[in-house]
């Protein structure tokens, strides 16, 4: 009997996908944490999805969809089954009309932001330093410095394993703070369409330079992390709550609340998922005991059990 693994290895996908086996997830996440995934499939052409999912269904093989891996914490035991992601190499931007850009799901957000700036289109400068993809940005409703995907998204093309490809309007995606309806319904964002405003390319460029500098000044970019670790509890700032509990610099093994920005958890070298989870629990408990505020992680846990 053939397993999904051997079929995947031998099947001719006409170069629409690349497959690698036993890949450490450390290499695919900005946190640099996580054991090996049985397989990582990089999809260059989404028309391969049907065939790919048919093969994975053979042994009921689980699959995990990821983007740039910049908001993920992966289990130390790794992931059984396949990690699937859209290629960034083949991803691009199309100008649909004067104010409308369509970007492929695997395109890094900073590239989209730069492209819009060069075309003199305003509205995406906020995304210039967010190290995720367009698909991950839609899924998370990524945002920074007063802007968010919700402000500029018109619609997204989404693939569902059982329903095929559909266009979803921004309303249907129900974007709110670090949330979209995709967290409940599933679905893979293949592309997204943005409506922008006329702007001055130089002025937008200067704004982006300023935002990137503010990140370098405030964020611990010299260490691996997954960005802000906790969501902002309503009426508070996560980093300030953590700081006010005296937890700036708090450490479990190599996982540490950043001394530079208490809203970030950093990997000082060999942090494990278990250490990050312990730190998360300690921070949550202390903040609750001190302020009565419940903190929720913004970071998504793969291969263990925090829920969407
Ligand atoms: C240094 C640093 C700074 C950051 N700053 C910010 C910031 O300012 N603002 C902010 O919002 N975030 C920030 N982040 C977090 C992160 O970049 C965002 O959450 C980003 O949107 C995640 O995109 P991704 O492609 O990396 O998704 P991943 O981390 O790979 O995945 C996150 C979730 O999105 C889903 N997903 C990914 N791609 C798709 C797709 N094509 N279709 C459907 N679902 C998909 C995955 O299944 C997963 O559940 C930062 C992270 C780092 C490391």
In short:
This protein is an alpha+beta fold.
What does this structure look like?
With 308 residues, the chain is an alpha+beta fold. The chain folds into three domains: 4-86, Uridine Diphospho-n-acetylenolpyruvylglucosamine Reductase, domain 2 (2-Layer Sandwich); 93-206, Uridine Diphospho-n-acetylenolpyruvylglucosamine Reductase, domain 3; 220-302, UDP-N-acetylenolpyruvoylglucosamine reductase, C-terminal domain (Uridine Diphospho-n-acetylenolpyruvylglucosamine Reductase, domain 1, Alpha-Beta Complex), CATH 3.90.78.10. Helices cover 29% and strands 28% of the residues. The chain has a five-stranded antiparallel β-sheet. A hairpin with a 6-residue loop joins β17 (255-257) and β18 (264-267). It is globular. The two termini are 36 Å apart. Residues 30, 65-72, 86, 105, 130-133, 135-137, 139-140, 142-144, 182, 188-189, 219, 221, 225-227, 300 line the site of flavin-adenine dinucleotide.
The major beta sheet can be summarized as: 5 strands, antiparallel
Structural class: alpha+beta
- What CATH architecture label of the largest domain applies? 2-Layer Sandwich
CATH class term of the largest domain = Alpha Beta
Helical content class: 25-40%
Overall mean pLDDT score?
95
N- to C-terminal separation?
Answer: 36 Å
Number of domains: 3
CATH topology name of the largest domain = Uridine Diphospho-n-acetylenolpyruvylglucosamine Reductase, domain 3
Order of helices and strands: HEEHEEEEEHEHEEHEEHHEEHEHEEEHE
């Amino acid at each position: 009997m053939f397993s999904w693994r051997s079929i995947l290895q031998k099947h001719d996908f006409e170069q629409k996908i690349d497959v690698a086996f036993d890949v450490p997830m450390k290499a695919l996440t900005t946190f640099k944490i996580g054991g090996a995934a049985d397989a990582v499939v990089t999809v260059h052409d989404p028309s391969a999805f049907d065939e790919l999912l048919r093969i994975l269904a053979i042994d009921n093989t689980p699959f995990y969809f990821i983007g740039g891996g910049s908001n993920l914490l992966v289990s130390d035991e790794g992931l059984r089954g396949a990690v699937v992601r859209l290629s960034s190499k083949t991803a691009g931007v199309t100008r649909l009309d004067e104010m409308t850009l369509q970007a492929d799901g695997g395109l890094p957000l900073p590239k989209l932001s730069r492209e819009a700036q060069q075309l003199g289109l305003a509205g995406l400068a906020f995304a210039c330093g967010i190290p995720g993809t367009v698909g991950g940005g839609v899924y998370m409703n990524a945002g920074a410095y007063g802007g968010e995907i919700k402000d500029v998204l018109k619609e997204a093309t989404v693939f569902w394993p059982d329903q095929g490809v559909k266009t979803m309007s921004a309303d249907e995606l129900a974007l709110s703070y670090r949330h979209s309806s995709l967290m409940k319904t599933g679905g893979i964002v293949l592309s997204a369409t943005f409506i922008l405003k006329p702007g001055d390319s130089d002025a937008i460029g200067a704004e982006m330079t300023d935002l990137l500098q503010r990140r370098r000044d405030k964020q611990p970019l010299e260490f691996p992390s997954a960005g802000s670790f906790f969501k902002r509890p309503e009426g508070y700032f996560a980093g300030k709550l953590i700081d006010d509990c005296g937890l700036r610099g708090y450490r479990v093994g190599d996982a540490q609340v950043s001394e530079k920005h208490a809203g970030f958890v950093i990997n000082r070298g060999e942090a494990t998922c278990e250490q990050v989870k312990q730190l998360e629990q300690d921070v949550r408990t202390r903040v609750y005991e001190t302020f009565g505020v419940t903190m929720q992680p913004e970071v998504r846990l793969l291969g263990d059990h925090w829920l969407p």
